[in-house]
Amino acid sequence: MTHPSIVILTGAGISAESGLGTFRDEGGLWAQHRIEDVATPEGFARNPALVVDFYNKRRAQAHEAVPNAGHTALARLKAEHKGEVLLVTQNVDSLHEKAGSTDVVHMHGELASALCANCGHRWNAPLHMEVGEACPACAQPTARPDIVWFGEIPYHMERIEEALSRADIFAAIGTSGNVYPAAGFVQMATYVGARTVEMNLDPSETVALFEETRPGKASVTVAQWVDDILNG
Ligand code: OAD
Q1: What average pLDDT is seen over the chain?
Q2: How many helices (H) and strands (E) does the chain have?
Q3: What is the mean pLDDT of residues 190-211?
Q4: In a mutational test of the pocket of ligand 1, which residue from 175, 198, 222 has the highest number of ligand atoms less than 8 Å from its CB?
Q5: Does residue 16's CB lie within 6 angstroms of at least one atom of ligand 1?
Q6: Are 87 and 96 in contact (CB under 8 A)?
Q7: Among 70, 100, 134, 181, which residue carries the largest CB count within 10 Å?
Q8: Predicted confidence band at 2 (pLDDT cuts at 50, 70, 90)?
Q9: Distance 180 CA to ligand 1 centre (A)
Q10: pLDDT over 90, % of the chain
Q11: What's the pLDDT band for 190 if we cut at 50, 70, 90?
Q12: What is the mean pLDDT of residues 131-142?
C-alpha cells in the first residue's frame, strides 16, 4: 500500500506523560469525582458552580501542560505522511495542537471552548469561567464548558465514520476502551479491512479486537510506530 489512509484515536493516556491525569487509572479523575456530579447535564443543572470549578481546574492544568513525544510524533505523521491522516481525540486538552497538529477532531469537546446551552453558539472560553456568563450571541446567562457529557452525543461522528469507512490503518492510543462510540471504532475499521493497532500502557477492554498491540508508554510506542509508517 503506497499511501494508506490512517485514522488515529487518542485518549487520556497520550497526555499522561504531560502530567494530565487519566480517568480510570488508579487515583484517576473518576476515583476523585463522581461522573454524575461533574460530567452529566443533570449534574450541571444541580450544581453549576461545582462543574464550572472542576473544568476551570482542568483548564488551568491543561494550559500549563506541554506536549510529549507521543503528541509530537503524531504531528510529524500528519505533516509528512502522503496519504490521509485523521486525528480524532477524546481529549479535551489542546496538546495535539500545541505539538503542531492541525484539524484535530475533538469528539468530546474542548476545555478551550465555551458553549451556550440556549442557542448552541461557541466561543473561546476564558481561562477561568464564571457560572452564568452571558453568551456573546444571544446574551442569555447560559454559558457552559464545551464538553460532551455522559448522555450527550459526541461531536463530528459523521466525519469520523466516513473516514473509518475508507481507513487502511486504524490506531488507538492511550484509551481504555470503556466509552462508546469511540470504543467501537476498532470494529468499524476491522469491518472495512483496515489494519488495527493498539498502543496502550495496559491492555484495553477491547484489546482482543486489535490485530496488533504495542504495549508501553505512548511517548515511546507512538514515536516508534510513526517511524515505522513513515519508513514504509
Ligand atoms: P481512561 O482513563 O479510561 O484510559 C486511559 C488509558 O491510558 C488506560 O487504559 C491506561 O492504561 C492508558 N495509559 C496511561 N498512561 C499511559 C501512557 N503513558 N501511555 C500510553 N497509555 C497510557 O481514558 P480514556 O479512554 O481517554 O469522557 O477515557 C475515555 C473517556 O472517558 C474520556 O474522554 C472521558 C472519560 O469519561 C468524557 O468526559 C465525556
Answers
A1: 97
A2: 10, 9
A3: 98
A4: 175
A5: yes
A6: yes
A7: 70
A8: confident
A9: 13
A10: 98
A11: very high
A12: 97
Cell numbers at residue 76, please? 510529524
Q: Residue 59 in 3-state DSSP?
A: helix
Q: Are 177 and 183 within 8 A, CB to CB?
A: yes
* E strand or H helix at 115: strand 109-116
Distance, C-alpha 180 to centroid of its chain: 13
Tell me what the mean pLDDT of segment 165-191 comes to.
98
pLDDT of 88 > 90? The answer is: yes
How far apart are the CA of 163 and the centre of ligand 1, in A?
22
Which protein residue's CA is at the shortest distance from atom 25 of ligand 1? 175
Measured distance CA(24)–CA(30) in Å, rounded: 6
- Does ligand 1 have an atom closer than 6 angstroms to the CB of 145? no
**Residue closest to 114 by CA, chosen among 159, 59, 157, 153:** 59
Tracing cell 484489546 back to the chain, one arrives at 207
Cβ-count burial 174-208 (b if 16+ within 10 Å, e if not): bbbbebeebbebbebbbeeebbbbbbbbeebebee
